[in-house]
Amino acid sequence: MKIYDWIVVGGGIAGAAIAYELQQKNFKVLLIEQDARPDNATRYSYGGLAFWSATTTINRQLCEEGKICHQVLSEELSGDTEFRELDLLLTIPVDIDPQKVKEDYTRFATPPKLLTTQEATELEPLLNPEVISGALTVKHGHIHPGKTTQAYLQGFLQSGGEIEIDKVVTFQNLEKVQSTGVNYATIKTLKNTYYAANIAVCAGGFSRNLLKASGINIPIYFTHAEIIETQPVELQLNTLVMPANLQRFQLESGSTKSDELWDEPGNKLGNILDPGAVQFLDRSLRLGQISYILTDPHSNIDATNSEALLRDRIKNILPAIGKLPGSFHHCLVAFSKDSLPLIGSLPEQDNIYIFSGFSNPLVIIPPLAKRFANWVSSFEDDIIPQLSPERFGRGNWNW
Q1: Mean pLDDT by 10 residues, the chain (399 residues)
Q2: Is residue 258 located within the same domain as residue 230?
Q3: Consecutive H or E run containing 163
Q4: H or E segment to which residue 382 belongs
Q5: Distances in Å between the alpha carbon of 346 and those of 176, 256, 333, 373, 384?
Q6: Are 164 and 188 in contact (CB under 8 A)?
Q7: Which SS3 state, helix, strand or coil, does residue 139 take?
Q8: CA dist., res. 48 & res. 66, Å (int)
Q9: Are 12 and 39 within 8 A, CB to CB?
């Protein structure tokens, strides 16, 4: 029977980064991922790195650290993350005043520049000029999220880490291992029982229900996100295109006002469609996205209807892009009440930690993974304690 210092649950970019950083601290680490072939939010991400978008002191610091991390990450991990900078275009609908939209963006660390419709279409010739009154633009970081995660995992394995493909069923905080007489945190999976001094839950959109199955309720939530992915194409998209009036964050914020609604699996708390597109270096595209808030993580999605809606909106903005053949995909995306992640041990569960609920995740996960590994190695940190789940108070949660 193996006993680990840490078991990390979830093999997306959050779990991969945490596992790698913990292994660098000479902990004995096991990562458990349920899918041999990735099928998570990391897999279907746009890959964008919004270094420019910080609005708070904490986010400004993390975005600055994140940019430094990403600039050297390929070299550190000995795996190409495809890091680059490209132009982000935030499209403004034809019936909206561009100046007012520009004013809404002045709170960001690097406010985007306003372009006329002509300037926007010169920068991105695939745009439909008839449906926009202008656009905002700013330099935007970009990586291949799948390749970045694989680079983390490869670095983790090369450092002596272990990976198991298995599905976690429940956790227990402390259980005595008879052969040692010592209490360890316990994970029960479909195949086995694992023991560790500590557990880090990095299961993204599944984190809430996974913890709830073990009697642990915390204020973490999820959307059902839907995208279309194409094969490599000859067509060239020069920029990352998204709407200036992103609705996803408003949807998330509005859905967290009543935790009671989240305890009922059949609730539908809203949906939005933010049409956008990005092309990767292999010339494939990801087109998105629809976000549904359905409190059951296993809710059935009408893929045919969703794909039709998504294509219709994208064709309006990018006519040549919207009609490209592609495959439809669905995943869960975790979020919190205040757009900051939940990081730290759970109250009365001192051996179980959460590392999930990220907004702007690809930027801040690398620096926070480093900070977390240092923090649990008894180094002081000025940010990690501020991200504890306890910042929301315990309320009526079942700890």
Answers
A1: 93 98 98 93 95 94 97 97 98 97 96 98 98 98 98 98 96 72 88 94 94 89 96 97 94 89 90 97 97 93 92 97 95 94 87 92 96 96 94 59
A2: yes
A3: strand 162-165
A4: none
A5: 20, 19, 21, 17, 13
A6: no
A7: strand
A8: 12
A9: no
Rounded Cα gap, residues 182 and 141, in angstroms: 47
Cα dihedral angle (50, 344, 13, 65), rounded to 10 degrees?
40
> Whose structure tokens read 């053949």?
325
The answer on 243 and 135 residing in a single domain is yes
Which tokens sit at 64? 């600055």
Question: Is the pTM above the cut of 0.85?
Answer: yes
Angle of the 13-24 helix axis to the 145-158 helix axis, nearest 10:
30
344: left (phi over 0), alpha (psi -120 to 50) or beta: left
Q: Name the DSSP class of 360.
A: S
What sections of 144-289 are H helices per DSSP? 145-158, 207-212, 248-255, 259-262
Residue 258, domain extent:
86-140+221-335
Q: Are residues 236 and 360 in the same domain?
A: no
